[in-house]
Design a protein that fits this description.
Strand content of chain B: over 45%
Structural class of chain B: mainly beta
Oligomer: heterodimer
Radius of gyration of chain A: 13 Å
Largest sheet of chain A: 7 strands, mixed
Shape of chain B: globular
Amino acid sequence: DSGVTQTPKHLITATGQRVTLRCSPRSGDLSVYWYQQSLDQGLQFLIQYYNGEERAKGNILERFSAQQFPDLHSELNLSSLELGDSALYFCASSVDGDTIYFGEGSWLTVV
Amino acid sequence: TQLLEQSPQFLSIQEGENLTVYCNSSSVFSSLQWYRQEPGEGPVLLVTVVTGGEVKKLKRLTFQFGDARKDSSLHITAAQPGDTGLYLCAGEHGGSNYKLTFGKGTLLTVNP
């Protein structure tokens, strides 16, 4: 158990819909990262937040957005979903730039 | 563009055999990490290498960072079924954030 909690673990939704994935980082960790893992692209960095502020952006689509709240939990919002958005979405956390710990992921299936 | 190429993509061996997997890039990284991911779980950090030429050992696993900090290898001695998993390398370019670039991984199966 990494200490990073993600919900939901599995989600099936239809194209065009919007979903929210939630992440609770390890206690004391200020940085939260979101990654997308798919068979064709592998593990891709989406975005990083540090203590509520966006710190780095990767290959995140404009239809996707994220935020980190004062209690340090984070949410990844995925809208206008397409079939190609089906993937495993990981949240990870770290104190700041040291070892990052991954959650177990949220498996999203868009049908 | 895949910045980190891992090879082989798939590897199936018998228990007790040795193996090496590779992680190559045209980019220089300030550090490189190796992770193992098991089904239904997130990647778990095995090691971080920082210095060119650095060799780190973790029980039966030996990790090496290339002299130019562009490539790395993972050697497993006397593989066991518990070593089965997806091995991912990830490079970090440094700076104030911790944006990792991952390879697509080597899926290792160790048969009893």
